[in-house]
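Obj: model holo form, ligand = pyridoxal-5'-phosphate.
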Amino acid sequence: MAYLDHAATTNLLPEVKQLLVEQLGAAMNPSSLHQSGRAARQLVEEARERIANSIKVRPAEIYFTSGGTESDNIAIKGLHWARNRNANKNQILISSIEHHAVLDPAQWLADRGEAQLIQIPVDAVGRIKLDWLADKLEADHESISLISVMWANNEVGTVQPISEVQQLAERYGIPVHSDAVQALGALPIDLTQSKVDALSVSGHKIGSIHGTGFLMLRTGVKVDPVLHGGNQERDVRSGTINAVGAQALALAVELAVARQGAHSTRLSELRDELVARVKQSVPDAVYNGDPVNRLPGNAHFSFHGAEGEVMLMLLDAHGVQASTGSACSAGIAQPSHVLIAMGLDPVKAKSSLRFSLGAHSSQTDIDQLIAVLPEVVSRARAAGLVSDNKVSH
Ligand SMILES: Cc1ncc(COP(=O)(O)O)c(C=O)c1O
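Output (holo structure tokens):
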């Protein structure tokens, strides 16, 4: 089997597995005042400190959550509510290529009449247009509650100019959130260099368990809570803290940061080989995203005239697991909003596949893919585009 879907989720690190074996099982509620509670609290605070050191922020700026989706929701809704309530700022600015975990809460606020949602356009490789943003901020800065631009895109892998966004926003005192779910461990993240106000990270993308993650929120940046309950995590995220999960996450973050350089070098070499061999075996394949400034493990292609879902199923039947990169709801695949924002026509957008590499990937995975890809593409082309006439935006 060739698993080429590490951007969706990746293997548990053996070091994390060992830690879980050792620590799972004890009754641990870090909010309890007795000995066991205090021991659990110590584990949580130690984990917080290790995560903070890894990305160079203060421990008090780390809030444990259940993962990327929750961190993004707190950042978007929480920041917007607090800024709109306190300072009457109504516009949310997000890039047009955000993950649904950012896009949907922003859209939800807009649908309820609580915000005006404005999307920052991107160019043909999926990089946000900084000139557009500079003009927008100059014209409307007084109305903007927050800006959210992801560190790197999950579908096409394009890395965004986060420091430049933050520097533009800083002139007007507008908080910047960045979804770094795909970036941590793949790119250097030093928050003394990129001074974003909020950052989302997910554990299962870096070898921790599912249901772990954190939101970094700078001291002084206020959010209204999304979850209400026991006021844990200083009222930013109610709910009993997963002490072992915090430890697992801290270990995964430390290892991801420590190994990032070597890991990224190895993955980008492997990825370049994959790209070259895909182009060789299917010469009219179109490589999407920024050819240089992209996640080291990401390769994204359009195969004109072949339905993405059909190629996915045929590959799966041959033991090759990939992704179309975009969410499929109610069984009907919609063209990806990311590819549409980059200017691909909806039919091309639906003819796409993402191959994503991780620590477990090897040459053998690429060999397996290339052995079946030309036949898969031609069979999918012969089947035609199922939804040529019913593409919706
Ligand atoms: C960029 C990005 N943000 C957010 C998420 C959601 O993270 P989680 O699965 O931890 O909720 C994902 C997961 O695919 C992602 O790729």
